[in-house]
Amino acid sequence: MRIEDRRFHWEDPAGREHFAEHGHAIVSGVLDAADREEIERGWNDVVTEAADACGLVPERFVERFPQNRDLWRKSARFRRLLFETRQADVARRYLGVSGVRLFHDHAILKPVHASGSIPWHQDSAYWPVDRVGLSLWTPTHDVPADGGCLEVLDTSHRDGPAAPQDFLAGGGAAPTAEGRRLRLPVRRGETVVLNGLCWHASGPNVGTTDRLAYLTLWVPSTARFVPEHAGWHPTAAHVAVPPGARLDGDWFPLFGSVPSDDEGELVQFPQPAARSGPSMFTASRDIAEQIVWLLGVPSAPLARLLEGDGPADITRTAVAAGLCPDAAATELRAVLDDLKLQDHVRRRSVARDVYLRSVSRWWALVGARVDEERNAG
Protein backbone atom coordinates (compact mmCIF):
# COMPACT_ATOMS: atom_id res chain seq x y z
CA MET A 1 0.00 0.00 0.00
CA ARG A 2 1.28 3.49 -0.80
CA ILE A 3 2.36 5.88 1.96
CA GLU A 4 1.33 9.55 2.03
CA ASP A 5 4.49 11.63 2.30
CA ARG A 6 3.17 15.13 1.57
CA ARG A 7 2.96 17.53 4.53
CA PHE A 8 1.99 21.15 4.98
CA HIS A 9 1.75 23.83 7.61
CA TRP A 10 -1.95 24.36 8.25
CA GLU A 11 -1.76 27.96 7.01
CA ASP A 12 -0.05 26.98 3.74
CA PRO A 13 -2.53 27.45 0.85
CA ALA A 14 -1.04 24.33 -0.75
CA GLY A 15 -2.37 22.28 2.17
CA ARG A 16 -5.89 23.56 1.60
CA GLU A 17 -5.56 22.83 -2.13
CA HIS A 18 -4.34 19.31 -1.38
CA PHE A 19 -7.28 18.75 0.97
CA ALA A 20 -9.76 19.99 -1.64
CA GLU A 21 -8.31 17.64 -4.26
CA HIS A 22 -7.60 14.55 -2.17
CA GLY A 23 -10.01 14.77 0.79
CA HIS A 24 -7.25 14.66 3.40
CA ALA A 25 -4.10 16.51 4.41
CA ILE A 26 -1.37 16.02 7.02
CA VAL A 27 -0.60 19.41 8.57
CA SER A 28 1.58 20.84 11.32
CA GLY A 29 1.16 23.78 13.68
CA VAL A 30 -2.30 22.90 15.03
CA LEU A 31 -1.42 21.54 18.49
CA ASP A 32 2.02 22.02 20.04
CA ALA A 33 4.00 19.87 22.48
CA ALA A 34 2.28 21.40 25.53
CA ASP A 35 -1.11 20.73 23.94
CA ARG A 36 -0.25 17.09 23.35
CA GLU A 37 0.82 16.73 26.97
CA GLU A 38 -2.55 18.19 27.94
CA ILE A 39 -4.28 15.55 25.81
CA GLU A 40 -2.49 12.79 27.69
CA ARG A 41 -3.10 14.31 31.13
CA GLY A 42 -6.73 15.04 30.30
CA TRP A 43 -7.23 11.51 28.97
CA ASN A 44 -5.75 10.01 32.13
CA ASP A 45 -8.00 12.20 34.30
CA VAL A 46 -11.15 11.25 32.40
CA VAL A 47 -10.30 7.54 32.31
CA THR A 48 -9.43 7.45 36.03
CA GLU A 49 -12.72 9.09 37.01
CA ALA A 50 -14.75 6.78 34.74
CA ALA A 51 -12.89 3.70 35.97
CA ASP A 52 -13.45 4.62 39.63
CA ALA A 53 -17.17 5.03 38.96
CA CYS A 54 -17.52 1.40 37.87
CA GLY A 55 -14.95 -0.20 40.16
CA LEU A 56 -12.24 -0.89 37.60
CA VAL A 57 -8.59 0.05 37.53
CA PRO A 58 -7.87 2.53 34.72
CA GLU A 59 -5.82 0.04 32.70
CA ARG A 60 -8.68 -2.45 32.67
CA PHE A 61 -11.25 0.25 31.92
CA VAL A 62 -9.45 1.64 28.89
CA GLU A 63 -8.77 -1.86 27.61
CA ARG A 64 -12.53 -2.45 27.54
CA PHE A 65 -13.60 1.07 26.57
CA PRO A 66 -10.89 2.65 24.41
CA GLN A 67 -13.07 5.53 23.19
CA ASN A 68 -14.34 8.37 25.36
CA ARG A 69 -16.51 11.20 24.03
CA ASP A 70 -17.53 14.77 24.98
CA LEU A 71 -14.15 15.33 26.62
CA TRP A 72 -14.41 19.11 26.50
CA ARG A 73 -17.44 18.93 28.79
CA LYS A 74 -15.65 16.64 31.27
CA SER A 75 -12.21 18.17 31.55
CA ALA A 76 -10.87 21.71 31.80
CA ARG A 77 -7.80 20.50 29.89
CA PHE A 78 -9.85 19.50 26.86
CA ARG A 79 -11.98 22.62 27.14
CA ARG A 80 -8.82 24.72 26.86
CA LEU A 81 -7.71 22.66 23.87
CA LEU A 82 -11.02 23.47 22.22
CA PHE A 83 -11.24 27.19 22.96
CA GLU A 84 -7.58 28.26 23.15
CA THR A 85 -5.92 26.49 20.20
CA ARG A 86 -6.12 26.83 16.43
CA GLN A 87 -8.41 23.86 15.82
CA ALA A 88 -11.51 25.90 14.95
CA ASP A 89 -9.43 28.15 12.67
CA VAL A 90 -8.17 25.08 10.81
CA ALA A 91 -11.70 23.70 10.47
CA ARG A 92 -13.01 27.01 9.09
CA ARG A 93 -10.15 27.37 6.63
CA TYR A 94 -10.38 23.83 5.29
CA LEU A 95 -14.17 23.83 5.06
CA GLY A 96 -14.04 27.27 3.44
CA VAL A 97 -16.80 28.71 5.62
CA SER A 98 -17.40 31.76 7.82
CA GLY A 99 -18.02 29.76 10.95
CA VAL A 100 -18.00 26.23 12.34
CA ARG A 101 -19.62 24.40 15.21
CA LEU A 102 -18.09 21.57 17.14
CA PHE A 103 -20.19 18.45 16.61
CA HIS A 104 -18.33 16.60 19.34
CA ASP A 105 -14.84 15.56 20.41
CA HIS A 106 -13.44 12.23 21.49
CA ALA A 107 -10.24 10.27 21.91
CA ILE A 108 -9.39 6.68 21.02
CA LEU A 109 -6.56 4.64 22.48
CA LYS A 110 -5.03 1.77 20.52
CA PRO A 111 -2.71 -0.12 22.88
CA VAL A 112 0.18 -2.04 21.37
CA HIS A 113 -0.94 -5.54 20.30
CA ALA A 114 -4.28 -5.12 22.11
CA SER A 115 -6.42 -3.22 19.62
CA GLY A 116 -8.59 -4.08 16.66
CA SER A 117 -9.44 -2.57 13.31
CA ILE A 118 -11.89 0.20 12.51
CA PRO A 119 -13.61 -0.72 9.21
CA TRP A 120 -13.95 1.54 6.19
CA HIS A 121 -16.48 4.36 6.56
CA GLN A 122 -17.28 8.02 5.90
CA ASP A 123 -17.53 10.17 9.05
CA SER A 124 -20.32 12.47 7.89
CA ALA A 125 -22.54 9.45 7.27
CA TYR A 126 -23.00 9.19 11.05
CA TRP A 127 -23.82 12.84 11.78
CA PRO A 128 -27.49 13.99 11.75
CA VAL A 129 -26.81 17.21 9.82
CA ASP A 130 -27.21 18.27 6.20
CA ARG A 131 -23.67 19.59 5.54
CA VAL A 132 -20.38 17.80 5.03
CA GLY A 133 -18.02 18.33 7.96
CA LEU A 134 -14.45 17.40 8.72
CA SER A 135 -12.38 15.83 11.48
CA LEU A 136 -9.07 16.87 13.00
CA TRP A 137 -7.13 13.78 14.10
CA THR A 138 -4.12 14.46 16.34
CA PRO A 139 -2.01 11.71 17.93
CA THR A 140 0.19 12.43 20.93
CA HIS A 141 3.17 10.46 19.56
CA ASP A 142 4.53 9.27 16.24
CA VAL A 143 2.15 6.84 14.55
CA PRO A 144 4.09 4.69 12.06
CA ALA A 145 2.52 2.63 9.29
CA ASP A 146 2.17 -0.37 11.63
CA GLY A 147 0.98 1.67 14.61
CA GLY A 148 -2.73 1.82 13.83
CA CYS A 149 -2.42 4.82 11.51
CA LEU A 150 -5.27 6.05 9.34
CA GLU A 151 -5.78 4.58 5.89
CA VAL A 152 -7.71 6.54 3.29
CA LEU A 153 -9.10 6.04 -0.17
CA ASP A 154 -7.54 8.97 -1.99
CA THR A 155 -10.04 11.42 -3.62
CA SER A 156 -12.99 9.32 -2.37
CA HIS A 157 -14.73 12.44 -1.05
CA ARG A 158 -15.67 13.04 -4.69
CA ASP A 159 -17.46 9.69 -4.95
CA GLY A 160 -20.49 10.97 -3.08
CA PRO A 161 -22.26 9.83 0.08
CA ALA A 162 -22.93 6.20 0.95
CA ALA A 163 -25.08 4.74 3.70
CA PRO A 164 -23.44 4.61 7.13
CA GLN A 165 -21.52 1.37 7.40
CA ASP A 166 -22.70 -1.10 10.02
CA PHE A 167 -19.53 -2.48 11.62
CA LEU A 168 -21.42 -5.51 12.91
CA ALA A 169 -22.46 -6.45 9.39
CA GLY A 170 -19.05 -7.85 8.55
CA GLY A 171 -17.35 -4.47 8.65
CA GLY A 172 -17.53 -1.51 6.34
CA ALA A 173 -17.58 -1.94 2.59
CA ALA A 174 -13.84 -2.10 1.87
CA PRO A 175 -12.93 -0.04 -1.19
CA THR A 176 -11.78 -2.05 -4.17
CA ALA A 177 -9.70 0.67 -5.84
CA GLU A 178 -6.40 -0.56 -4.43
CA GLY A 179 -4.41 2.01 -6.37
CA ARG A 180 -6.12 4.78 -4.38
CA ARG A 181 -5.47 3.36 -0.93
CA LEU A 182 -2.99 5.33 1.16
CA ARG A 183 -1.59 4.93 4.65
CA LEU A 184 -1.09 8.12 6.61
CA PRO A 185 1.71 7.62 9.14
CA VAL A 186 1.92 10.74 11.27
CA ARG A 187 4.83 12.30 13.13
CA ARG A 188 4.50 13.83 16.57
CA GLY A 189 3.19 17.36 16.12
CA GLU A 190 1.11 16.62 13.04
CA THR A 191 -2.66 16.53 12.54
CA VAL A 192 -4.71 14.80 9.86
CA VAL A 193 -7.49 16.95 8.39
CA LEU A 194 -10.10 14.57 6.99
CA ASN A 195 -13.08 15.44 4.81
CA GLY A 196 -16.31 13.90 6.16
CA LEU A 197 -16.86 12.10 2.83
CA CYS A 198 -13.36 10.62 2.61
CA TRP A 199 -13.44 6.85 3.07
CA HIS A 200 -11.00 5.79 5.78
CA ALA A 201 -10.17 2.97 8.17
CA SER A 202 -7.43 1.96 10.60
CA GLY A 203 -5.77 -1.34 11.38
CA PRO A 204 -4.60 -2.75 14.71
CA ASN A 205 -1.59 -1.27 16.43
CA VAL A 206 1.27 -3.74 16.03
CA GLY A 207 3.96 -1.09 16.53
CA THR A 208 5.93 -0.37 19.68
CA THR A 209 3.98 2.50 21.31
CA ASP A 210 0.37 2.89 22.43
CA ARG A 211 -1.55 5.13 20.03
CA LEU A 212 -3.67 7.84 21.61
CA ALA A 213 -5.44 10.11 19.11
CA TYR A 214 -7.60 13.12 19.94
CA LEU A 215 -10.35 14.05 17.47
CA THR A 216 -12.50 17.13 17.08
CA LEU A 217 -15.41 16.90 14.63
CA TRP A 218 -16.65 20.06 12.93
CA VAL A 219 -19.60 21.15 10.77
CA PRO A 220 -20.37 24.47 9.02
CA SER A 221 -22.22 26.97 11.21
CA THR A 222 -25.17 26.79 8.79
CA ALA A 223 -25.57 23.01 9.19
CA ARG A 224 -29.15 21.97 9.90
CA PHE A 225 -30.41 19.20 12.15
CA VAL A 226 -31.65 16.20 10.12
CA PRO A 227 -32.68 13.48 12.62
CA GLU A 228 -34.11 11.22 9.92
CA HIS A 229 -30.58 10.81 8.61
CA ALA A 230 -28.75 9.66 11.75
CA GLY A 231 -30.94 10.44 14.71
CA TRP A 232 -29.58 7.36 16.48
CA HIS A 233 -26.21 9.09 16.95
CA PRO A 234 -25.75 9.69 20.72
CA THR A 235 -24.98 13.39 20.17
CA ALA A 236 -28.44 13.87 18.63
CA ALA A 237 -29.88 13.64 22.14
CA HIS A 238 -28.29 17.01 22.92
CA VAL A 239 -29.78 18.86 19.95
CA ALA A 240 -32.33 21.39 21.22
CA VAL A 241 -33.50 22.76 17.86
CA PRO A 242 -36.34 21.27 15.78
CA PRO A 243 -35.66 19.23 12.65
CA GLY A 244 -34.61 21.44 9.76
CA ALA A 245 -33.29 24.22 12.00
CA ARG A 246 -29.68 25.26 12.14
CA LEU A 247 -27.65 23.53 14.82
CA ASP A 248 -27.37 25.63 17.96
CA GLY A 249 -27.00 25.38 21.70
CA ASP A 250 -24.37 24.91 24.40
CA TRP A 251 -23.40 21.43 23.22
CA PHE A 252 -22.34 22.80 19.81
CA PRO A 253 -20.16 25.87 20.44
CA LEU A 254 -19.80 28.35 17.59
CA PHE A 255 -16.47 29.61 16.27
CA GLY A 256 -16.70 32.42 13.75
CA SER A 257 -20.00 33.70 12.42
CA VAL A 258 -23.31 32.36 11.09
CA PRO A 259 -23.95 33.93 7.66
CA SER A 260 -27.47 34.53 6.44
CA ASP A 261 -26.90 32.29 3.41
CA ASP A 262 -26.07 28.60 3.76
CA GLU A 263 -22.42 27.63 3.43
CA GLY A 264 -20.72 24.29 3.05
CA GLU A 265 -21.47 21.26 0.92
CA LEU A 266 -25.08 20.06 1.12
CA VAL A 267 -25.35 16.29 1.35
CA GLN A 268 -28.06 13.66 1.69
CA PHE A 269 -27.09 10.17 2.79
CA PRO A 270 -29.05 7.01 1.99
CA GLN A 271 -30.36 5.00 4.91
CA PRO A 272 -28.64 1.78 6.02
CA ALA A 273 -30.04 -1.24 4.21
CA ALA A 274 -32.44 -3.42 6.16
CA ARG A 275 -30.76 -6.62 7.28
CA SER A 276 -31.12 -9.52 9.67
CA GLY A 277 -28.58 -10.07 12.40
CA PRO A 278 -26.91 -7.69 14.83
CA SER A 279 -26.69 -4.00 14.01
CA MET A 280 -24.41 -1.41 15.59
CA PHE A 281 -27.21 1.14 15.24
CA THR A 282 -29.75 -0.80 17.32
CA ALA A 283 -27.66 -3.33 19.25
CA SER A 284 -28.93 -2.52 22.77
CA ARG A 285 -32.55 -2.48 21.64
CA ASP A 286 -32.16 -5.69 19.64
CA ILE A 287 -30.53 -7.58 22.51
CA ALA A 288 -33.21 -6.32 24.90
CA GLU A 289 -35.94 -7.62 22.58
CA GLN A 290 -34.22 -11.01 22.39
CA ILE A 291 -33.95 -11.24 26.18
CA VAL A 292 -37.60 -10.22 26.61
CA TRP A 293 -38.62 -13.04 24.25
CA LEU A 294 -36.31 -15.51 25.97
CA LEU A 295 -37.58 -14.74 29.47
CA GLY A 296 -41.21 -14.15 28.48
CA VAL A 297 -41.35 -10.84 30.34
CA PRO A 298 -42.75 -7.40 29.42
CA SER A 299 -40.65 -5.15 27.22
CA ALA A 300 -37.92 -3.28 29.07
CA PRO A 301 -34.66 -1.50 28.26
CA LEU A 302 -31.49 -3.55 28.37
CA ALA A 303 -30.24 -1.88 31.55
CA ARG A 304 -33.33 -2.98 33.47
CA LEU A 305 -33.18 -6.53 32.14
CA LEU A 306 -29.59 -6.84 33.33
CA GLU A 307 -30.23 -5.50 36.83
CA GLY A 308 -29.62 -7.67 39.88
CA ASP A 309 -29.77 -11.38 39.04
CA GLY A 310 -30.69 -10.66 35.43
CA PRO A 311 -27.50 -12.12 33.89
CA ALA A 312 -27.83 -15.31 35.94
CA ASP A 313 -31.55 -15.71 35.07
CA ILE A 314 -30.89 -15.16 31.37
CA THR A 315 -28.06 -17.69 31.39
CA ARG A 316 -30.14 -20.35 33.14
CA THR A 317 -33.08 -19.79 30.79
CA ALA A 318 -30.93 -19.95 27.67
CA VAL A 319 -29.31 -23.21 28.79
CA ALA A 320 -32.64 -24.76 29.81
CA ALA A 321 -34.16 -23.84 26.44
CA GLY A 322 -31.29 -25.52 24.61
CA LEU A 323 -30.17 -22.21 23.11
CA CYS A 324 -26.81 -22.27 24.86
CA PRO A 325 -24.74 -25.41 25.51
CA ASP A 326 -23.90 -26.17 29.14
CA ALA A 327 -20.24 -25.84 28.27
CA ALA A 328 -20.75 -22.24 27.14
CA ALA A 329 -22.82 -21.13 30.16
CA THR A 330 -19.87 -19.57 31.95
CA GLU A 331 -18.89 -17.62 28.85
CA LEU A 332 -22.48 -16.45 28.32
CA ARG A 333 -22.70 -15.21 31.91
CA ALA A 334 -19.44 -13.31 31.38
CA VAL A 335 -20.83 -11.74 28.19
CA LEU A 336 -23.99 -10.64 29.99
CA ASP A 337 -21.98 -9.17 32.85
CA ASP A 338 -19.90 -7.34 30.28
CA LEU A 339 -23.00 -6.06 28.45
CA LYS A 340 -24.29 -4.79 31.79
CA LEU A 341 -21.02 -2.97 32.42
CA GLN A 342 -20.94 -1.67 28.86
CA ASP A 343 -24.45 -0.25 29.11
CA HIS A 344 -23.61 1.43 32.42
CA VAL A 345 -20.41 2.97 31.05
CA ARG A 346 -22.13 4.09 27.86
CA ARG A 347 -24.81 5.96 29.79
CA ARG A 348 -22.69 7.35 32.61
CA SER A 349 -19.30 8.03 31.05
CA VAL A 350 -20.13 8.27 27.33
CA ALA A 351 -17.38 5.75 26.64
CA ARG A 352 -17.66 2.66 24.49
CA ASP A 353 -16.01 -0.37 22.99
CA VAL A 354 -15.46 0.70 19.39
CA TYR A 355 -14.82 -2.91 18.38
CA LEU A 356 -18.28 -4.10 19.58
CA ARG A 357 -16.82 -7.29 21.01
CA SER A 358 -19.53 -8.04 23.60
CA VAL A 359 -22.36 -7.65 21.11
CA SER A 360 -20.60 -9.95 18.65
CA ARG A 361 -20.02 -12.55 21.37
CA TRP A 362 -23.67 -12.41 22.49
CA TRP A 363 -24.79 -12.96 18.94
CA ALA A 364 -22.44 -15.89 18.39
CA LEU A 365 -23.40 -17.58 21.66
CA VAL A 366 -27.16 -17.02 21.81
CA GLY A 367 -28.50 -14.16 19.71
CA ALA A 368 -28.49 -15.94 16.35
CA ARG A 369 -30.30 -18.97 17.84
CA VAL A 370 -32.85 -16.76 19.57
CA ASP A 371 -33.68 -15.04 16.29
CA GLU A 372 -34.02 -18.40 14.53
CA GLU A 373 -36.49 -19.57 17.18
CA ARG A 374 -38.42 -16.28 17.11
CA ASN A 375 -38.71 -16.34 13.34
CA ALA A 376 -39.69 -20.02 13.32
CA GLY A 377 -42.46 -19.33 15.84
Structure description:
Helices cover 34% and strands 18% of the residues. With 377 residues, the protein is α+β, with helices and mostly antiparallel strands. Strands 2, 3, 4, 5, 7, 10, 12, 13 and 14 form a 9-stranded mixed sheet that branches. α2 (33-53) packs across α3, α7 crosses α11 (357-376) and α9 runs antiparallel to α10.
Characteristic terms for this protein:
single chain; 377 residues; alpha+beta; nine-stranded mixed beta sheet; five-stranded mixed beta sheet
Question: What share of residues are in beta strands?
Answer: 15-25%
Task: Specify Rg, calculated over alpha carbons.
Answer: 21 Å
Shape: globular
Mean pLDDT: 94
Element pattern in H and E: EEHEHHEHHEEEEEEEEHEHHHHEH
Strand runs, count:
14
For the largest beta-sheet, the strand count, sense and barrel status come to: 9 strands, mixed
The rounded distance between the terminal residues' Cα atoms is 49 Å
**Helical residues, percent:** 25-40%
Structural class: alpha+beta
Low-pLDDT regions: none
Number of helices: 11
